[in-house]
Amino acid sequence: MARRKVQRRLPWWREPRLHRALRTLLLAAALIMLVVAGQGAVTYLMEPDTLPVRTVTLEGELRHLHPDTLSAVVTPHLQAGFLALDLRQMEASVQALPWVRGVWLRREWPDRIVIQIEEQVPVARWGNDALVNQYGELFHPALSEAPEGLPFLEGRQGRQRQLMERFLAVQARLADVGLEVSGLREDARRSWVIQLEDGGQVLMGRGMDTDRLDRLVRMYPRLEAHRDHPIKRIDMRYTNGIAVAWQSPERDGQ
């Protein structure tokens, strides 16, 4: 007669399911402790006094942006500390300065912030409230901060590059007869006026008519030889000739 096998039940504390549940609970508890510890460590590191910014390094040559102006914008952001410092906000604050064309910031462990600045390079005045940079872009610093001797341009916004190119061409062409050009204006109808260094003006009419400019170069030496007073205005808008107005003797004697 065959014997029946009797299965013995394990005690409850040795049940595999219980062991698996305990391991899961222990793992979850360990993870929670790690998260809490990590949060505490992050909170500690983000405190301004834990990792303060000790050094700010400036890269880029500054000719017009005053260091005190830059410092006044940057310093409030540094109070947040090395890790908590919001580089984007700080970058936006520096970018808002009128003499700044571009700015890039980076952290260098453990306590340095590097600020790289591309400063605006003025090449001309634009109207009464702006300057033009070397890319034909307008920017708006205090005009009292602009360097002396910049040419004066005036026209519709968006025409800066074209007027600057025209100014350079006219300046080079008229230099051949000793005429110094200080500026250029273009009205809404694209009629343009050459402003001379001595206060005189040359009315050129619409468009870039090189024939008129060549005629001025040919005729100016004769005007120069026979004039008694400085030229007030030369009107080149005629087909074959020019009209000249002279400054009054009273103005000449001032």
From TrEMBL:
Q: How does it sit in the membrane?
A: Single-pass type II membrane protein
Keyword vocabulary terms for this entry: Cell cycle, Cell division, Cell inner membrane, Cell membrane, Membrane, Transmembrane, Transmembrane helix
Write out the annotated subcellular location: Cell inner membrane; Membrane
Please verify whether the record's keywords include Transferase: no
Q: Which residues form the POTRA domain?
A: 51-120
Q: How does it assemble?
A: Part of a complex composed of FtsB, FtsL and FtsQ.
PANTHER family hit by this protein? CELL DIVISION PROTEIN FTSQ
Q: Which family does it belong to?
A: Belongs to the FtsQ/DivIB family. FtsQ subfamily.
Q: What is this protein called?
A: Cell division protein FtsQ
